Amino acid sequence: MQPKNSKLFPGKPSIWSNKLNSVIHNKNINAMKKLMMITAIFSLTLLSAFAQRDMERKEISPEQRAERSSERLAEKLDLSEEQKKQVYELNLQTAEARKAQMEVRRTEMKQNREAHQAKMEVILSPEQQEKWNELRESNRKRGGEMRKGEENRRKQFRKGGSHKKGSASSPRGRYGRGR
Q1: Cα separation of 11 and 141, whole Å?
Q2: Which of 145, 167, 142 shows the shortest CA–CA distance to 156?
Q3: Of these four, 100, 151, 170, 175, which has the most CB atoms within 10 Å of its CB?
Q4: What does the pLDDT look like over 89-144, one tens digit per residue?
Q5: Could you state, in order of their start, the residue ranges of all structural domains in the chain?
């Protein structure tokens, strides 16, 4: 039997229905608060992940590279101030030389790629050229995905990740050979 003051009957609600409504209302508010917290945490996580990814893509100058490697060596080898300066100068010279070599290599590779492409266009028919361009594009996408995986393996190794002997990602390769 239903009491007269229930929601089924119009009129003033009973004390129990007021308490029940407030409990339900509080549960809804708590659920909304939890949902908002989860959403905020998820958003911040994504934001920080994208920020780190953007930081990783920036090219490091030779000065920054020399500074980083010099600091690491100074820490590990307990270098004096004079030694730190000498190591920094040596690292800076090496980093600048490597950058110059990379620029030369980059331009050579670009020229080779363009020459190869021009020769291929002479050999192939227009239909074959279209297919070839599609193949190159799909390979470019796949290569980008593979490079990302390789970068992650390198980062893990630098951070001191575990490399079991004989694993494909170990520094010596799956079969224990050097690279």
Answers
A1: 69
A2: 167
A3: 170
A4: 999 999 999 999 999 999 999 999 999 999 999 999 999 999 999 998 988 888 76
A5: 13-44
Cα(first)–Cα(last) distance of the chain, in Å?
84
Collect all residues with Cβ–Cβ distance below 8 Å to 68 and sequence separation of at least 6: 60
- Cα dihedral across residues 48, 52, 58, 64: positive or negative: positive
Spacing of C-alpha 131 from chain mean position: 32
pTM (predicted TM-score): 0.44
User: Which pLDDT does position 1 carry in this prediction?
Assistant: 46
Angle made by CA atoms 168, 150, 93, in degrees to the nearest 5: 115
Long-range contacts of 144-148 (CB under 8 A, 24+ apart): none
State the Cα–Cα distance between residues 141 and 163, nearest whole angstrom: 28
- Percent residues over pLDDT 90 in the chain: 32
DSSP-assigned letter for residue 169: T
Of 126, 112, 62, nearest to 92 by C-alpha is 62
Whole-angstrom distance, CA of residue 47 vs CA of residue 59: 21
- Which of 108, 120, 179, 121 minimizes the C-alpha distance to 150? 179
For 173: left if phi > 0, alpha if psi spans -120 to 50, otherwise beta; the answer is left
